[in-house]
Structures are given as structure tokens and as C-alpha cells.
Amino acid sequence: MRDANLAGESLSTGPAEAPDTIRVLVAKLGLDGHDRGAKVVARILRDAGMEVVYTGLYKTPKDVVQAAIQEDVDVIGVSLLSGSHVPLFRELGRCLREEGAGHILVVAGGVIPEQDYPALLEGGVDAIVPQEARSDLIVTTITDLVTARGRI
Amino acid sequence: MSDAHLFSASAIDAIRQSQAEWEEGALAAFLKTRPEEKDVYETESGIPLKRIYTAADVADIPAEELGFPGAYPFTRGVYPTMYRGRPWTIRQVAGFGNPEATNQRYKYMIQTGQTGLSTDFDLPTLLGLDSDDPMAFGEVGRVGVAIDTMDDIDRLFDGIDLEKISVSLTINPSAWVVYAMFVAVAEQRGCDLAKLTGTLQADPLKEYVAQKEWIYPVRPAVRLLRDLIMYSARATPKINPVSLSGYHLSDVGGNALQEIAFTMAFTIAYCEEVTKAGMDIDDFAPRLSFFFISHQDFFEQICKFRAARRVYAKIVAERFKARKPESMRLRVHVQTAAMSLTKVEHHNNLMRTAIQALGAVLGGCQSMHTNGLDEAFAIPTEEAMKLAIRTQQIIREEINVTSVIDPLGGSYFIERLTRDMETEIWKMLDEVEERGGAVKLVEEGWFQQKLADSAYATFKKIDSGEKISVGVNRFADEASSTAEVHIHPYDEQCTQLQIDRLQAVRANRDDARIRTLLAELAEEARSDDTNLLPKTIELVKARATLGEICGALRGVWGAYAEPMIV
Known about the structure:
Chain A is an alpha/beta fold.
């Protein structure tokens, strides 16, 4: 597991050098401090053999897109419990397109009412993981998305 | 310590002997025909549970460890008459949108029978940012009410008599500024400051390890709390300047033992900070208040409250040499466990909350928030809050659980578990001490790692089905859907209104004076020995904004860099 702000050795226990290892940026957006879920998900993905980088708190959509490009990840997984998901994911999607990084997949999790799913999917979110999800659903959501897109 | 025990040695021997006979005889025979469902029975935090408890299990506990309500060590409650004299305060937290929107909700809840107010602030306010700050994008008025200047505090409590109803303010890194605004508004209304009652959360150490709202590095944040405690003790003697919050430690993954032990470690750190600055423990400890969760493991939670009271009383009496009994009593606000709520079949949340609320009452709480059944979706609707208030009223008025103080006291099981929890809490406190104390360990990320590990372990238990969530990983109904739930709407206009008001305030004040005052505040912050409250109160009266005041000290102290713990 690495801090996105630091260059350095990966602490991931996954097979980091294998070319087919999925790389995920686990991110927090905006001012939401609830990081329990993000950290648990980071560990689940690592245990599933993925290479995981965690952004830490209080990141703007722009910060997250830059970290994702720099770390060359396949997927950005964002956990949000602040209720601000619609504007923040819309902005994240806009930043990704602006930076020509539309190939990076976006997975949303946290407290997200189903009423807001259409708005998120329109704004560039590729999948939404419900808060009761078990680890296999979290892992297969990501692997299925990456498989469907193909490796880049 | 005397060694007065509750039972004679010969009586205990007799019990042990007859228990052995029962185990070898009737029990052994029964187990052969019907084995128990699990091999291991334990509490949520891992304390082993026996099949049955007898007097032999409590024979080592001196009678004085229980004592009497309102007397040291307060195991049985903090007041001599408990709910016979005054029921707990029904204190539902609310906050959203502009101050007027929250004010309306307050008036609705007072009319429904709520007896104290409690405010949630939006994230920009909590983090010391004005509503027009770029980082506030999308967040204004979202999870709480937006506050930028003292006029917003005035709007928030419009038509509410601050001398009559107690006001709890769930505010942390920017707490000293919101306190200054509250005092300034009370003065403007001609209130007697000595009559103001209420509570600020203002517990910085738990922010760095749990709720994760911060502005400055750890030590300046603790200094700000010190200033707040010392100023409030003199200016507003009936306000609790801090609510030491175990709730969030639990919310982020901590078990019941960690909740209490870590909270007590932070309590010790704050008491050291204030006594070091020259204030006597008895001049501020009576106004320390606490905030714990009431979670799912029913008996463990009840024992947790009892053990916490005992540990706190001993810390304040023995370590800090307090003399006043008021300094030693742990008064606690309780909230039921948001983490236990599910989106799936969300009506089940009513039952979960009612049971947790009953646990808090049997544990002797002083005030309570019961969660709305829709809080797994968004902030609660008015209807959900009404049901939550009704839950407390039913417990208070219909089921006769308030007539007898500490009704579970003396149960062999309850006393044993209370004692076991206390012992484990002391062990954790010893470890914190050996490793250099709470402030250092927060800086190093030690608590953060413990809590992240505990959260992951809990998730694994849910994932494997060992920890059951009804309707989710047991008795799941594939046909349930959550899409039709009515949730609290967000007011899209509220950001613009806050921004317009900020601009109007900035256009109509003496900017030169504010610049001078901000520079003076920054200068005071450079040394450790000036209390920052008087200057802050001057600033808010001159209509400096929350963001400007917090920003001025960011220039002095810098921002906090989070240790990357996963």
C-alpha cells in the first residue's frame, strides 16, 4: 500500500510486477473525513492481489485525476459519505476527460442513495458498489470492468 | 481500600462445589443430547463469556467498587436519584442548509418534545473554511448547517431563548471560533453568560484518529482546546467546553474497550495540558463531558458505561488529585450506532435503534440522540426524527425502566463483565503511557493503526457471516428494494445565499480593523501563553468570518499532514 503523495517502494503484498496486476487508486474526494470504508476496501483489493494506492483525505477531483495518471492506475475507487457525491463525481469525470484520461475507470462507494445512481452514471462513474457489498462483489466489480475494457 | 466483600468465603466455596456438581451431572448429560451452537461465546470486543455466572464470579469484587449512585466511584450512576430526579435529555442533532432551515427543524423538534438542542455543522464550517472557499465546492449546507459569521449563529437560534434551553454544538477544529460567535450572540441579546448551558464537542485528538476533521497540527489543536476550557470555565461556567467522544472511535472501527481506553487517554492528555497551564483540576473537570456510542452488543454496552464511569472517577481522583465529587463524575451523551443501520429493509433500523437506546438508559446516560431509520441514506427526514424522538419517549414513559437506579447492578454477569472491561481498559491505558502518551501516539498514527485493524477485522467477520446483519447477510430477501425511500432533499440554493451574505458582510465592515486584529491574533498564537479567546471574540464581533480567523492561524501553525495509515 502506498501513499499517493510519496514516491517509493510499494508495500503491496500483491504480485506487483506481474503485467496483468490491476492497479487501483483508492481516493477520498472533497471534505469528507469518513475513511473507514476506503481503508477497508484498500486492504480487500490488496488481499485480492491488486496494486493499491491510497490518496489520503481532502483531495480535489483534480488532485485525484493527477494522482491516477501519475500512478498509471486502471481504476479510481472513490468512497464518499458526505452527500456531495453528485457534484464531486461530475467534476471528477470532467477532469478525467479534460486530461485525456477517460480510459481510467471510476467506481463509486459509500453512502449513495439509489436515486442518485443515474446522475452518477451519466457523470462518468462506471460502477457503484452498494454499502452492504461483501468483498467478492467489490473485487469482481473491478475485475469485470477492467476485463471488459481490456488492458491499456 | 477496605476488603469488604459481598459474600463470605464459605458461601462461595459452597457455590463452587454445587456448580461443579451441576456441570458434571445435569449439564454434561444435556450437552450430550444437545450440543451448543457455538464453540466460543464472547463479547464484540472479545471478552470470553461463560454459560452462567454465579456469586463465585464476583467474589473478588469489593463492595466499594459498586458504591452508590452519585458517589465515588460512580459505577451505579452520576446522580443520587438518576432518572427519578430528572430524565435524560432527548437531544436529537440537526443541521442542514442555511441557518434558517435548521432553525425551523429545531422549532419542529421542540414542539415534538425534544428537550435540548444539538447542531451539526457542514464540512466547510467544521474545517474552518468560508462558504465561498474553492474547497467548499459541493459541500455547503450538506451534512450540517453553514456558518460563516456570528450573524449566522444569530439566525440559527432565532426565537430560541439561550438562557432556557441547552445547546450542543458538534464542532471541532474551528470550535473556538464558533464558541466566540455563540458568546457574542448571547451578549448581543443581553443574555446572562453565566446562565448559558450547552456543550461543544471540541475534542481534537479523536479527530486525528477517527472523525478526521483537522486544520492544524496536533499540538496547536490541543492548545486551542486548552484555551477554550480555561476561558469557558470563567466566562460561561455552565457550558461544557469539550465532549470527549468515544462515539467516533467506535464509528471508525474501535471496539468497546478501545472506545473507552482511547477516550480516557485523551482525557488524561487534556487534563495535563490544562493543569500544566496553572488551572486547578477542580476548576474545570466538573465541565468535562463525554459522548459514547450505544452499539449492538447489549450487555457489553451497558457494562461499558459502568466501567467508563469507574475508570474516569479513578483517573481524576487518583492521578489528578481532584477533591470535588463533581470533577469525578462522567456525564455522558449517547448516540445509537449509525454503523449498525442498513439500507436494506431500512425499517429494521427502528428496532435496532430502540434496543440500543434501551441499553443506553440501563447504562445510565444523561442525554441521548436516537438515529433516524433513514440515516443510512442521508440526513434524516422530519418524519424519521419524530419516530426517533418517540422511541425515547416510549422508553421513558411506557415501560417503567426509570424507577430503579442501575437496575442491572448486582447481576453476577453484569458486575463480572464491568470488572473485566475495566481491567482491559487499564491495560490499554498503561500501554499508551509506556509508549509516551496520547499526543505522541496520535502524531505517530498508533491509534489510527489500531482502529483501522479493528475495522478490517470487523469487516472480515461480516464478510464471513460470523457477524450477522439481519436482512443483509442473514434472512436476506432478494425482493427488497431501497430505491423508493423518501430522503431529505438538499437545498441547491443554499450555497449562493451564504456567498451573497458573506459578500454583504465584507462590504459593510471595517476591513482595516479586521486586518489589525487578525495580525494580533496571529502574534498571540506564536507564543504558548496567551489565551486566544478574547481576541477571537473581538474578531467575530467586528464581523471577521470563520474562514479568515482559521486562515490567520494556518499561517502561523501550518496545516496537518496525515500519516498514511491503511
